[in-house]
Specification:
- By secondary structure, this protein is α+β, with helices and mostly antiparallel strands.
- It has a six-stranded mixed β-sheet, covered by helices on one side.
- Strand 1 and strand 2 form a beta hairpin.
- The two termini are 33 Å apart.
- About 16% of the residues have low confidence.
Length: 229
C-alpha cells in the first residue's frame, strides 16, 4: 500500500518483529525520503519503531506527556510518542492475517516547516546546523504542535473517503484529546489527490518552506496548517 502511495522500492519487514509490531509498522516502512527520493530500509524501519516506542508499550491516544517539560525535553518525549492509526480487516483465508487498508501518523513537531527525518534526533542536528549557518528559519509557534503525516490508503480501498475520515479522526484527537487549536502537515503540490483533499478539508498554505541551501527538493514541499477551533 505504501509502496503504491509513495513509489518507493519494495521493502521486506524484518523477521525479528512481533506480529503486533508488524501490523503497526508495515504501513510506514515505505516513507518517502524527501531529500533523495530513495527509501533506506534500516533508517525508516528503525526510525518508525523509535518514534512509536512509548505507544507500543502503552497503547492509548493520550497526548505525549510534555506538560511542564522544558522545550528540549518536550521534543525528546514527543519523538518517542507518535500515534499511528491503522485501518485493517481480517483476511478471509487466514485467521491470523490482516490486510492493511489505510494508515496515518500524528505527532508533535516544531512549526518551522522542516520535513521530519525518520529519526527525530537528526532533525535536531539539522536545526543546529541551520542555526550555525545563520539561517533564519523560526517556528510559527513557541510550543510543539500536532503534525499529520504518512496518510496512505491502499489502492483497492480508495474512493471510499477513507483518507478524509482518517484526517478528521486525527484532527479530533489533536483537538479534543490533546487540546490543540491547529494542526500542520506537508503536501507535495504535484500530488493532486492529496492537495485536493487537504484544501477541501480547510488546510491553508502557511507560506513558509524549509529551504536551507542543502534541502534540495524538500524546499518545494508545501507546509499547510488548519485551525481546529
Amino acid at each position: 500500500m505504501i509502496l503504491e502511495a509513495f513509489g518507493a522500492e519494495a521493502i521486506a519487514l524484518s523477521s525479528d518483529l512481533s506480529s503486533l509490531e508488524q501490523a503497526l509498522i508495515q504501513p510506514g516502512v515505505g516513507l518517502l525520503n524527501a531529500y533523495s527520493g530513495a527509501v533506506a530500509y534500516t533508517e525508516v524501519l528503525s526510525g518508525l519503531r523509535n518514534r512509536m516506542k512509548d505507544r507500543l508499550q502503552n497503547s492509548d491516544i493520550s497526548i505525549p506527556p510534555i506538560i511542564d517539560a522544558t522545550h528540549a525535553d518536550a521534543e525528546t518525549i514527543a519523538g518517542k510518542s507518535s500515534l499511528v492509526l491503522v485501518l485493517a480487516r481480517k483476511q478471509s483465508d487466514d485467521i491470523f492475517g490482516i490486510d492493511v487498508l489505510a494508515t496515518v501518523e500524528l505527532r508533535l513537531q516544531p512549526t518551522d516547516a522542516k520535513i521530519p527525518f525518520s529519526y527525530p534526533w537528526l532533525d535536531n542536528v539539522e536545526r543546529k546546523v541551520a542555526k550555525f549557518f545563520g539561517l533564519n528559519i523560526s517556528p510559527k509557534d513557541s510550543d510543539l504542535q500536532p503534525y499529520l503525516s504518512n496518510l496512505c490508503v491502499a489502492e483497492s480501498a480508495r474512493g471510499r473517503r477513507i483518507g478524509k475520515s482518517l484526517v478528521r479522526c486525527v484532527e479530533k484527537i489533536a483537538s479534543d484529546t490533546w487540546g490543540f487549536s491547529k494542526i500542520y502537515l506537508h503536501v507535495d503540490l504535484e500530488n493532486a489527490a492529496a492537495f485536493s483533499l487537504y484544501k477541501n478539508e480547510g488546510y491553508e498554505d502557511v507560506g513558509s518552506r524549509w529551504n536551507p541551501f542543502w534541502a534540495g527538493g524538500a524546499a518545494d514541499i508545501a507546509y499547510f496548517v488548519k485551525k481546529l477551533r
